[in-house]
Amino acid sequence: MEVGGIYVSTRAELPLNSDNVGGKAYTFFFTNFPDKCNHGDLWRCFKNHGKIADVFIPKKKSEVGRRFGFARFLNVEDRDQMVAKLNSIWLGSFKLRVNPAKYSRNDQKPKGGEEGRRIRSVVIKPLSNVEGVGSPASHGNAGLSYKEAFTRSKGVNPVTGGDGEGHY
Question: pTM, whole model, 2 decimals?
């Protein structure tokens, strides 16, 4: 489909897999471009660097409030070289930041909102289980509650809260 002299593909029009494009097709994630930049501006910019198949800019923004998008290139020989080439693009005072996309269209994304993040489980052992550390026996107050041990060691009267001489 042609829009304003620019060919714009639709996903239904151009099935993209490596079997029917004659080479490798790669999708790249990009960010750090001006708010006034639209699909057509980026298409024109990307077409100078390879055979572009699709440019997509979602309406939503990233977690840090920045715009981002995806560009799909056909017949890419070296993905890392293409990333380096695309990372050299400047749009006014904005230097485009490009990385290979983490997921392809057919991949299953992790569930639960923790995309791309690792979750470590940490086991914390209470200090009272370690002999001689944090146990009541190590403080000479075996079998006493915290309040009882505190009032006994400070000489505080548990009823009045003071030491019996007007000091609190």
Answer: 0.52
